[in-house]
């Protein structure tokens, strides 16, 4: 004899009420013991130092004596640059024992010992070109030299794979990306522009960027002797006047940017986004639900 529809419905309702009561009891107990059963997902963004969302860096090759004039312009407007030097070449270049003073406050980086077109060279010679350049420059400046720009823009996948083994953290290629993005491949780091290519136009675009949900990087490259050759010292000074001393911009060398991005990627976040541990020695800045927070090196920081 089949149960009536009314009886079956009563049984289902009874079991449903019992399940709901059990769930309420279980979740209530978990909440009382500090377990958050429902939490808003947080917006956590990495920032540049100080909570800034824009950065500017400059990169100049060959180490000719015109670098001194360029550095004086950078210093006047609070701009920092990286200078890639060939320590085995000496004509129209500073003696190695003067490099530390000339380039103080900026980064000295490799450009190989004698500036060959390295894609055509045996890989053993490429390694020597870079390591000997590093050794000479490190003796001159007193810190590890970890950046490179490819001489004549020449490189290969084999050379790229070699660089980390030689202590090189990044290398710049030639050409202009015409954008303000962060490097996707630090061993094929393409600048925003050469200083002779739309410099003021792109500088004005960069200065006008305001959306804080993005990180923007303007990267300018060239050779300082080109300003004398082209009678264009006014161009770089106009750019520095335009882009320098901005409150929303971090002025950094190439290696400072790379080291900072590495520190950002090394952060250890809790699963619920309420705290972070910074294993590096340098501070990293985050924007958490619109609030700027400094995550100090070697510390746990509540978010």
Can you put this structure into words, describing what you see?
- It is a single chain.
- This protein has 303 residues and is of the alpha/beta class.
- The chain folds into 2 domains: 55-252, Alpha-Beta Barrel (TIM Barrel); 266-302, no CATH class.
- The protein has helices spanning 5-32, 67-76, 99-102, 123-141, 157-162, 199-207, 225-229, 233-243, 254-265; strands at 44-47, 54-62, 81-85, 107-110, 147-149, 170-172, 193-194, 216-222, 249-251, 268-269, 275-277, 284-288, 291-295, 300-302.
- The longest helix has 28 residues, at 5-32.
- The termini are far apart.
Short description:
It is built from 9 helices and 14 strands. With 303 residues, the protein is an alpha/beta fold.
- Order of helical and strand elements: HEEHEHEHEHEEHEHHEHEEEEE
Question: What's the total number of strands?
Answer: 14
How many structural domains can be distinguished in the coordinates?
Answer: 2
Give the CATH class of the largest domain. Alpha Beta
Distance between the termini: 64 Å
Shape-level CATH architecture of the largest domain? Alpha-Beta Barrel
Major sheet details: 6 strands, parallel
Let me know the CATH homologous superfamily of the largest domain. Glycoside hydrolase/deacetylase
User: Might you state the CATH topology name of the largest domain?
Assistant: TIM Barrel
Give the amount of beta strand, in percent.
15-25%
> For the residues shown, what is the average pLDDT?
92
Helical stretch tally = 9
Helix content estimate: 25-40%
Spans where pLDDT lies below 50 across 5 or more residues: none
What Rg, in angstroms, do the CA atoms define? 28 Å
Shape: elongated
Q: What structural category characterises the helix and strand content?
A: alpha/beta
């Amino acid at each position: 004899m089949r149960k009536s529809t009314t009886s079956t419905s009563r049984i289902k309702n009874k079991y449903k009420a019992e399940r709901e009561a059990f769930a309420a009891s279980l979740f209530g107990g978990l909440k009382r013991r500090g377990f958050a059963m429902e939490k808003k997902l947080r917006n956590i963004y990495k920032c540049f130092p100080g909570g800034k969302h824009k950065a500017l860096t400059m990169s100049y090759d060959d180490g000719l004596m015109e670098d001194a004039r360029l550095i004086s312009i950078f210093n006047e407007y609070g701009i920092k640059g990286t200078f890639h030097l060939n320590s085995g070449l000496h004509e129209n270049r500073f003696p190695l024992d003067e490099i530390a003073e000339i380039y103080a406050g900026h980064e000295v980086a490799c450009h190989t010992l004698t500036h060959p077109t390295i894609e055509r060279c045996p890989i053993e010679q490429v390694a020597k070109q870079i390591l000997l350049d590093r050794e000479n420059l490190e003796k001159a400046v007193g810190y590890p030299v970890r950046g490179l720009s490819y001489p004549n823009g020449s490189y290969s996948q084999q050379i790229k794979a070699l660089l980390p083994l030689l202590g090189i953290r990044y290398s710049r290629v030639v050409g202009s990306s015409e954008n303000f993005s962060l490097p996707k491949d630090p061993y094929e780091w393409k600048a925003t522009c050469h200083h002779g290519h739309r410099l003021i136009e792109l500088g004005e675009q960069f200065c006008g960027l305001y959306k804080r949900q993005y990180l923007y990087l303007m990267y300018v490259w060239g050779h300082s002797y080109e300003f004398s050759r082209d009678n264009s010292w006014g161009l770089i000074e106009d750019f520095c006047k335009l882009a320098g001393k901005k409150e929303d911009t971090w002025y950094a060398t190439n290696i400072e940017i790379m080291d900072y991005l590495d520190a950002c990627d090394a952060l250890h976040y809790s699963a619920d986004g309420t705290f972070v541990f910074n294993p590096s020695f340098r501070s990293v800045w985050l924007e958490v639900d619109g609030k700027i927070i400094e995550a100090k090196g070697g510390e746990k920081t509540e978010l």
